[in-house]
Amino acid sequence: MKAKRRWLYFVLILLNIPLGLATRWAPQYFPSLIRIYGGDVFSATCIFFGFRFLYPLKSLPKVSLISFLVCIAIEVQQLYQAEWAVKLRNTPLGILLGHGFLWSDCVCYAVGTVIAAALAFLLERLLHWDI
């Protein structure tokens, strides 16, 4: 079952990444709500799927909490404005680190985590895997 779960979350990550990037790179194709907040929601879902991939047997509440806390840690680190940190954020890695703290991003991370956890719960139930 562990391998089956990993495959499921690997596929979900592969589906999630292009959607999240599309909200940033081709925003004209999305409604304004998704254009503004979708990237952060997709980031949170991707982090959740990544942790579920790495820890397929941990409980969904634990994976949800860990992934949400990682999202918040990424957001809070944006408050640190040392020159080297700003330079790092201006590299391609910067898409993972972000630019500037926003409370609305924290809400998006909560929404994304809840969506991912609900999807995980439903898929695992549908596939008759013990949760």
TrEMBL record:
The chain crosses the membrane at residues 7-26, 32-51, 63-80, 100-123. It holds the Pfam family DUF2809. It comes from the Bacteria. Keywords: Membrane, Transmembrane, Transmembrane helix. Signal peptide: none annotated. This is DUF2809 domain-containing protein. It comes from Chitinophaga qingshengii.
